[in-house]
Design a protein that fits this description.
Helix content: 55-70%
Length: 273
């Protein structure tokens, strides 16, 4: 039954211009660029430490540089984000300077710096492009608990960016991030559950739960999540929708159970690059 539904979903989405393949999301340019479509990697970043430097004047920039040179990791991060034009008050776009300061903060194991530096290596902004280095930096930030990095690492596994393609690893990392409330991870994982792939069987209930959570945001993917929910609702029984809503009251447990049932539990330490 699930296989038949998945085939119908693939067909219906394909004729509407959304490309899917039998093993899940197609690794087309649009899909791959979905995490890298801005000048700097700022998808769903909510874990940047509170700024101690406003950088709204030359004087404050000088003070920040002095603090950064003295080893203040927050100042190093602030400069890296500033030169990467991530912040509203960023002064100038200079990826070389962004990389310089992010490297210093990354050496102090700042997870946001590791994550953003990974993006620079993925795109070749301010550094020589190195997707393997990018994936390793995402992994380092993910190991420190940064949900953004877990989502980025999952996408690397999904589309073979710096690592061999591995759908199981992608699902594991998307799940880790989704448990932390990461909306983009919930959206991407919801799409996988909607159609299934080589590592995960189609599960309409889990797809509905995840996409319901993902649509409650103003991000670029929220409207698509709502559209997918509309499609699912016409192909699900009321009892199934009610079950999805029930699972949504404790999504972390639902995600753990679904993962265990389908591909088994693997501890984060067992995620292998």
């Amino acid at each position: 039954m699930k296989t038949l539904f998945a085939k119908k979903v693939v067909f219906a989405l394909a004729i509407s211009g959304i490309v899917f393949v039998n093993d899940g999301l197609a690794a087309n340019e649009t899909a791959v660029e979905s995490i890298t479509d801005k000048s700097f990697h700022n998808e769903n970043i909510k874990e940047i430490p509170e700024a101690k430097f406003t950088l709204d004047s030359i004087e404050s920039i000088d003070k920040c540089i002095s603090a950064a040179e003295a080893g203040n990791v927050n100042a190093q991060l602030k400069l890296g984000l500033n030169y990467g034009k991530l912040e509203e008050r960023s002064t100038v776009l200079d990826y070389t300077e962004a990389a310089k300061w992010l490297k210093k903060a990354a050496k102090q194991k700042n997870p946001v710096a590791l994550f953003q530096l990974g993006f620079l290596y993925q795109k070749g902004f301010g550094v020589n492009k190195d997707e393997v280095a990018a994936a390793k930096l995402y992994r380092a930030a993910a190991d420190l608990g940064l949900a953004d990095a877990k989502c980025a690492l999952a996408t690397c596994y999904m589309y073979s960016i710096g690592v061999p393609q591995n759908y199981k690893q992608a699902i594991l990392w998307y799940t880790d991030a989704a448990k932390q409330g990461h909306k983009l991870a919930q959206y991407k994982l919801g799409l996988i559950y909607m159609t299934g792939n080589n590592a995960l069987a189609c599960d309409q209930i889990m797809a509905y739960m995840l996409l319901s959570m993902a649509k409650s945001t103003d991000d670029w993917f929220s409207r698509d999540a709502a559209d997918k929910l509309g499609f699912l609702s016409t192909h699900m029984r009321m009892a199934q929708i009610a079950e999805a809503e029930r699972k949504g009251t404790n999504p972390s447990a639902a995600l753990s159970d679904a993962l265990s049932d389908q591909i088994g539990q693997i501890a984060p330490a067992d995620h292998v690059l």
